[in-house]
Amino acid sequence: MNMIDIIDKKRKGLELLPNELNYAFNGYLKNIIPDYQMSSLLMAICIKGMTDKEIFELTDLFIKSGDKLDLDNIKGVKVDKHSTGGVGDKTTLVIGSIVASLGVKVPKMSGRGLGHTGGTIDKLESIPGFKTALSREEFINQVNEIGFAVTSQTGNLAPLDKKVYALRDVTGTVESIPLIAASIMSKKIASGADKIIVDVKVGNGALLKTREEAIKLSEIMKKIGGRYGREVETMVTYMDIPLGTTIGNSLEILEVMKILKGEENNYLVALCMALASKMIVMGKGISIEEATKEVQESITSRKAYTKFLEFVKAQGGQIEKLEVSTITKDVISNKKGHVVDMDAYKFGKLSLDLGGGRIVKDQQIDPKVGIVLKKKIGDDVFPGDVLCTLYISEKSKFDLNEIIDYYTFK
Amino acid sequence: MNMIDIIDKKRKGLELLPNELNYAFNGYLKNIIPDYQMSSLLMAICIKGMTDKEIFELTDLFIKSGDKLDLDNIKGVKVDKHSTGGVGDKTTLVIGSIVASLGVKVPKMSGRGLGHTGGTIDKLESIPGFKTALSREEFINQVNEIGFAVTSQTGNLAPLDKKVYALRDVTGTVESIPLIAASIMSKKIASGADKIIVDVKVGNGALLKTREEAIKLSEIMKKIGGRYGREVETMVTYMDIPLGTTIGNSLEILEVMKILKGEENNYLVALCMALASKMIVMGKGISIEEATKEVQESITSRKAYTKFLEFVKAQGGQIEKLEVSTITKDVISNKKGHVVDMDAYKFGKLSLDLGGGRIVKDQQIDPKVGIVLKKKIGDDVFPGDVLCTLYISEKSKFDLNEIIDYYTFK
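ok -> structure tokens follow
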């Protein structure tokens, strides 16, 4: 067998056999197959696609390349949530608190942010004392006791997917439904949840541009889940604008608390309610109407908010010590109009430039900086109005006039 | 501009702009764009194709990446020949001698063999004393004086094509008409000939599998030539079997001499006659019937053979000292049947194993070893018949029984 024949076969649109996929992908993991051959194969897959059989096989190779987390010691139904992520996406913390407060277990592995998107682990680390690296025992015990835990300790889950993903990221081969499906599902299956809900984002700011693609991805993920006895549900949601009203680590934690106290009402809140309701349906087997009622009640009764505080405390966080920067700068509009669009990518990038994110791994970040969006889509703006407020440090880089153009007025 | 956006654009089948092609390909030449990104782009080009405009631009980038050879000091019409090459392909030496003997100039740059295909330079170096590295002046003077010269000294022609080709070779991205056209034509245009004939090979052993693809390639090459004021003619020929009756350096020189003396009559001879006739048409502007007559006459009169001897002498070769190995081994058939196929690739590989080729660049080769094919397609074979004779050295590696299976009998 040789890699060039395998690439040729996929270039011609033929189905690769299990041993060919194994040769190519495990060879890549072992550094026998070089990057430039794998990227050529990945591009051929992007354009020519994969059969279900190939996708199942690739998912299996990803899973088998690493450890499988055993969550059997967690009592009750465990529901995991995955999102393709985005700017200002703090859904995990809102949903985890709600769902756990209603008795369904949420064992959650999360990552750090890279580039213009944030990461849940970074957000939590803005809380002084918060410990994100839990041992397997600590993780399982906490989920058993309070129903919700977030850890960065993922052991060695699907390292092959990790390596392939890093290459896809720099070779224009990210937008492929088979590769996205295998990547998401391998990590979810290896991390042990019984039931998985995936927030499939579509739109200009997302990997998938159309609803049709999102549905196709949903279907293949459900099929993959079925092969491993996991129930998979999906929700297709739109991702064109920053989620919620804040971007930045401490600021987003404050926003999570406001949402859980019922003090916010926007698209992000609606999205969290819908996702949480679906997870309750999966966890309890009740109707979506009953689940939605329970979710709403968890907010009005402050059950979900209390659960969040309990969760933060369990992981050593001292929420009362959370700080945001005291230096702020308002971005003042010089235009008059109706906001019809906001550039999520540019806002994410701005948060990075302010010091809130990292360009390379393991870079030090400043949790106190960020952006509070004062005007959002649908708002009317007059000259002199504050569009957004920047929370900055001495190291922050920004150009106030440029930021005005992140908004589109009509 | 960034490479990932460029890759994405081509992945979606869109036309790349001149500045985008420049960014990607010149960036690759300067090592700013890594192999793994270029191979991903090349695969997208392979599958999605290129517009004529893109092909013209890419050819131009290839040409401009290096020197352009100025052949203006060569008097008369210069016709260059290109072949996609093959096992036992010694057409250059036969054709060059014929065409030059009829008064049309053939200034020829050639390469060394790599892998299972031979190279004209290696074949010539089997002649003791033959000098293949001519200076520009020596090259031009010799073409002016005797009409034919072969040199390995190509200056720095189309180095970008060279770099891209090396990557295509190991990433399954060779089979692309736009990339093949840009590669061939950039080298031919940079090397200065007025008129160019291209032997486009099709068949199992060739890059292109169908006549339709060969015609498509021919058309785009003619269009490219037109943009640089070069006349391009093509000939679509079949390449499934070794060309002629010998494989190996000294042996092939002997075969060239036999052909030029009119002592051979096979597909290779017919191919050489046809190509030479077309070159005479291009060089003299006469009809194909007249040209064919002149070519045949150059053989019967020994004009072409005399030209070959003159050419060898001019480059310092002592043809009387040419040697083939004195150790031979016959491959005896144990089967009875009609030869319906021969594996050109395996015979090429065998010549390599005997010591006649190189696996890595600049490897020492043994000019005296090789294979003489005694049975070819169409021949009847009986047990005990000699299929072929190996000319070997102590270092030669081969398995006589295995070689029988390079033939397919019916």
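Chain A touches chain B at residues 3-8, 11, 34-44, 46-48, 167, 170-173, 175 (CB under 8 Å).
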